Amino acid sequence: MQPNRFAMLVALIFTGAALLPQSARAQKTSEPKAPATAVGKWAVQFERTVMTHTDTTSEHGRARLVLVQQGDSVLGTWQRLEEDGSTVVHPLDATGVLRRDSLRIELTTIVDPDATFSNIAHDISVFLKEKIHGIVPTTTVLELVVRGDSLVGTVRAVSRDGVAMSPAGAVTATRLKQ
């Protein structure tokens, strides 16, 4: 008498689960993690590479990053801080996307609709850089991982077509308590 193939398959399926290591069974039954959140005020320390026509230097800096989250979109401001803790004059817009625990933020200049003269000066400066001096326009991009109340990642200048224009600098941040 030949064994029933269906019965053998069913027996294999039920006993196969028992053969799994205990850690694999525990992973399948564990609760899913709560989604990462980037909301809040962050004390940021970063290093960046500054490249000029004649020299390349690395500098360390501090900033305050304030973020709000709407779905997977992240919005806020980036404010550089001086050594004494005072702020640099103009904050930057921070816009990005949070996917699981990965956060990608682009920093851009805030355009003030009431500051007509300074906007014209900014446009002239951009024109001179791009058209006269041949300087490729870049955007500062932060690529971070959310780890509870800390952020860890890199900062770099990226051209409009996505090419990295500077080496990646390290970024760390700690969420400030309210």
Description:
This protein has 178 residues and is an alpha+beta fold. 22% of the residues lie in helices and 44% in strands. The protein has helices at residues 5-19, 22-29, 116-132; strands at 40-51, 56-70, 73-81, 92-99, 102-109, 138-147, 150-159, 169-175. It has an eight-stranded antiparallel β-barrel with strand order 1-2-3-4-5-6-7-8. A hairpin with a 2-residue loop joins strand 6 (138-147) and strand 7. The longest helix is centred in the C-terminal third of the chain and has 17 residues, at 116-132. It is globular and about 80 Å long. The termini are far apart. Mean pLDDT is 80; it is low at 16-20.
Q: What's the topology here?
A:
Blueprint: H1 5-19, H2 22-29, E1 40-51, E2 56-70, E3 73-81, E4 92-99, E5 102-109, H3 116-132, E6 138-147, E7 150-159, E8 169-175
Antiparallel strand pairs: 1-2, 1-8, 2-3, 3-4, 4-5, 5-6, 6-7, 7-8
Summary tags:
8 strands; alpha+beta; globular; 178 residues; 8-stranded antiparallel β-barrel
Strand content of the residues, in percent?
Answer: 35-45%
DSSP E strands, number: 8
Radius of gyration: 25 Å
Shape designation: globular
Major sheet description: 8 strands, antiparallel, barrel
Poorly predicted runs:
16-20
- The computed structural class is alpha+beta
Distance between the termini: 76 Å
Secondary-structure element sequence?
HHEEEEEHEEE
Going across the biggest sheet, name each strand in turn: 1-2-3-4-5-6-7-8
Q: What share of the residues lie within helices? A: 10-25%
Overall mean confidence score, pLDDT: 80
Number of helices: 3
